[in-house]
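Chapter summary example.
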Amino acid sequence: MRVRGASAAAVIVAMALVALVGLRPASAAFTIHKVDTAQFTVAPDKPVFILVMGNDGRSGETITRGDALHLIGVNPGQGQATIIDIPRDTLVGIPEEGSRRDKINAFHATGGAALQARAVGALVGVDVPFVVDTDFQGFTGLVDDLGGVDVDVPEAMNDSFSGAIFEPGVKHMDGVDALAFARNRHIGRGDFTRTENQGRLLIAGLTKLRNEHADAKSVLGNIAVLARHSRLDGLSLTDAYRLGRLAVSIDPANVRNVVMPGSTADVGGASVVVPDPSTTSLFEDFRDDGILQVH
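The structure predicted for these 295 residues follows.
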C-alpha cells in the first residue's frame, strides 16, 4: 500500500520563498498546481481552499492515484484553518465525468491534479484553486532536509507492513519514520485513522516552520531546502508570495484536523467508503468560511 503524506505549510511557504529569492529547483519533489485561472487575492473575508495530496507514484511512473487527500480551508480574517481528511476510497462522482462514479483517488489517474481538485471540490461543495502534490521520494527527502518533524503519536503502533513502530507520545521523525507513520492503516479504524494521522503530520510541519520562523539563520536554511524541493505550475510570483505569507500567519493551535465521517461498503465487488449523512452538514459548516463552528 503506497500512501503519501506531505507538509502543507512547508510546500506553500516554498512557493513564496522561491519567488522571493528567484531560485528554480533542479528537481521538484513537490509540484504546486494552480487550477483556477482567476487572479488569487488573499482577503480577510474570503476563505482559501488548498488540496494537499500524496500520490502513489514511483520513480518513472506518470499515471498515479491521489492516495492521500487533505482539503485545507484557511480563514485569513480569523487566523484559523481546518483540514478535512478524505479517505482515498470514498465513492464519488463529478459533473464533468457524466454518470461516472469511482473511488475519489482514481480521478488523479485520468485527469491529473486539475481533475482530482474538481472531484474533491464537488464532494465538499467548494472551488479548489490550488493543489500541492508529492510522491514517496519527495516527501521523505523534504522531511530529512528540514531536519525532521516532531509528531504526537496518539497510540502505540507496531505495524510490519508500513514499518510504523512507535510508542505513544511526541516523537522526532525523519523522512522514513514520517512516511511509515503516514502509511499505517493497521490501527484504529483503518484508512480513517490513517488519513487522520496524515493530517497530524501537516500540523507538525506547520509547527516546525512557525517555531523556527523568528530565527534568521533557520529561515535562510529553510529557504534553500524548500526551493530545492518545489516546482510551480501555473502560479504567478504574486500568487506564491501571497500563499506563503498566508501559511506562516496561521498558528498551529488554531488548525483543526477532522476526518470525513463515513463507513465501508461493498459496491460492485470493490470496498469503498460511503460518506455518512452527517457529512452534508459538516461540509456546509466548512465551505462558507473554511472553518468549523458547529462540528
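To summarize the output: The chain has eight helices and 15 strands.
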